[in-house]
Design goal:
Blueprint lengths: L1 E7 L7 H14 L4 E7 L11 H4 L3 E2 L5 E2 L1 H10 L8 E3 H13 L10 H19 L4 E6 L9 H12 L6 E9 L12 H12 L6 E6 L5 H11 L6 E5 L7 H7 L2 H9 L8 H15 L4 E8 L9 H14 L2 E8 L13 E4 L8 H13 L4 E4 L1 H13 L7 E2 L9 E4 L15 E9 L4 H6 L3 E8 L2 E2 L1 H9 L3 E6 L4 E6 L6 E4 L14 H10 L4
Helix pairs in contact: 1-3, 1-9, 4-5, 5-6, 11-12, 12-17, 13-14
The structure holds glutamine (GLN).
């Protein structure tokens, strides 16, 4: 097994996830079987209970994991599904060790961070590599070197290098920042020097530096960094700003990272992968092309951090790239929607959401999109509230609602299924992951998906109320897909509109560059008036 461990220095938000994904992509293009793990040193068991404003979106895996958004980056770069055991948190590690202690498995030993916690971390990492027969496993350690919470993880990674067996290999990549105070100014190396000192203090000498900077790293900056950090000058890699994150693998490749890693791993020769490179370059070029601009409003409440909706953003971009159009996405706060907003856009997308804040704004938007015949794609909450809007304004039930917001509403269009109404914990209790969806013939959904069944990922608790379906259908809304023997509705449409669709699932988690998800593609196509 070969391991590459990616650590971060100086500050958060430098794009460790993109560096990790890019290295993984390059090794995949070189013909190796690779995957990635994300370590999140926080005390939440998983990302499911975290506000997207703080940490970015919650990415849902096929097997129902509520994971860090970096897992989504790995999936999109590598075009593979990544299971939830690739997102390791402090809470998972500690709860396993504590329950083993309660079960008497430590036979009277004093249970400690070293060796018990570090052994559990190492076991989890090694298990992924072995179970999936990987050539290379890339492990990204969240947080920044020096954080108290990441110490046990970094210690476990240090031990893995110190104890690696013959034939095994471990490489460390440290991601840092070289700021320059003005555009032509000198690239500063001190933050990186300090960060590498901190890393060495805990016993880790990096093999590579991936240095974030606005302009390409200058030769003299590379020399200085090499001198102060003990990293070969040729392994100090410039990660300068690019038009698209998908350009980063190419930027790293040109600096010789693949040859260098193969040399350090003792691999002989690269496999022929020119065909894969052509496909990848085609995808990258399509993502940066210019075309007719389509303006999309994304209406939700997590507007202060664009990462809150990263998969939705990406899915729109994959669709636009495939259609040869440029996309401009505006995040519109559902709590204060400007009047006449809907008519200013080519399409309205309402992403998933929870709770009362901004819900009325979404209901209003769903209504106006129908009235002005602006293409509408509602995801999950955007699907549920489109049904509420239709009940209020087309069926004339002014107090129609979802019981998520008004639990004792007289007219629940969206509610809990009878068997769901019981006490439940907040974490991990939603309907999660991939489920089979059946699509009815002669519907827009069928035209889009060209299939009677699809598999898509979910993350929700509430469902369309069965008692409302006939009434909604009589007024012109149809439910074109369902799951679980019709217990749950999955897609709604208003055939009278140019494009009006809501989906209970999250198509964005299945969209990949070069392979846009069909509903997103159909939405952008309609917004661009390409049909
Ligand atoms: N809040 C809704 C539910 O729980 C929708 C969830 C979502 O949009 N992801 O069903």
């Amino acid at each position: 097994m070969k391991y590459i461990f990616v650590t971060g220095g100086v500050m958060s938000g430098l794009g460790k996830g993109v560096v990790t994904s890019s290295i993984a992509k390059l090794l995949q293009l070189a013909g190796l079987k690779v995957s990635c793990i994300k370590i999140d040193p926080y005390l939440n068991y998983d990302a499911g209970t975290m506000n997207p404003i703080a940490h970015g979106e919650v990415f849902v895996t096929e097997d129902g994991g509520e994971c860090d958004m970096d897992i989504g980056n790995y999936e999109r770069f590598l075009n593979i599904n990544i299971p939830k055991n690739h997102n390791i948190t402090t809470a998972q590690v500690f709860s396993d060790v504590i329950s083993a202690e309660r079960d008497g498995k430590y036979m009277g030993e004093c249970v400690q961070i070293i060796p018990h916690i570090t052994e559990e971390i190492r076991r989890r990492i090694a298990m992924v590599g072995i179970d999936e027969s990987l050539d290379v496993l890339i492990v990204e350690c969240g947080g920044t070197v020096g954080d108290i919470e990441s110490l046990p993880f970094l210690e476990a990674l240090r031990q893995m290098r110190a104890t690696c067996q013959a034939g095994d290999n471990v490489l460390f990549v440290h991601v840092t920042l070289a700021p320059s105070l003005d555009v032509v100014g000198e690239q500063k190396t001190k933050p990186t020097q300090h960060s590498v000192q901190e890393l060495r203090r805990i016993g880790i000498q990096p093999d590579y530096l991936a240095v974030r900077c606005t302009q390409p790293l200058q030769k003299k900056t590379k020399e200085k960094l090499a001198l102060f950090t003990g990293v070969n000058e040729s392994d100090v890699l410039s990660c300068h700003d690019a038009n698209s994150i998908f350009e980063i693998p190419g930027i790293l490749y040109e600096q010789g990272i693949v040859d260098s890693m193969f040399r350090k791993f003792g691999h002989v020769g690269l496999m022929d992968s020119s065909k894969d490179w052509d496909t990848w370059n085609g995808v990258v070029n399509s993502m940066v092309q210019e075309g007719k601009t389509v303006r999309i409003a994304m209406v939700g409440k997590y507007v202060t951090l664009t990462d809150s909706y990263v998969s939705v953003n990406q899915a729109l971009r994959h669709a636009a790239a495939d259609l040869g159009v440029s996309i401009k996405i505006d995040l519109v706060d559902s709590e204060s929607i400007p009047t006449g907003m809907v008519s200013k856009y080519d399409g309205i997308l309402v992403p998933g959401g929870f709770g009362i804040r901004g819900a009325e704004g979404i209901i209003q938007t769903a209504q106006e999109a129908r009235i002005y015949d602006t293409p509408y794609l509602g995801i999950c909450f955007g699907f549920q509230l489109a049904a509420v809007a239709f009940a209020r304004y087309a069926l004339n039930i002014p107090d129609a609602h979802t019981s998520e917001i008004v639990s004792d509403t007289n007219n629940p269009v969206v509610h809990l299924l009878p068997d769901q109404v019981s006490d439940h914990a907040t974490g991990g209790s939603l309907r999660l992951g991939s489920h089979t969806i059946k699509i009815k013939p002669d519907t827009l959904a069928h035209k889009i998906y060209q299939n009677h069944t699809i598999q898509r990922r979910h993350r929700h608790r509430y469902e369309i109320n069965q008692d409302m379906i006939t009434k909604l259908e009589v007024a012109g809304m149809i439910f074109s897909a369902y799951s679980d023997d019709s217990r749950r509705m999955e897609i709604l449409e208003i055939p009278e509109c140019r494009f009006y669709m809501g989906v209970q699932f999250h198509p964005e988690f299945s969209s990949r560059p070069g392979f846009p998800e069909s509903s997103y593609r159909a939405f952008v196509k309609s917004a661009a008036r390409l049909n």
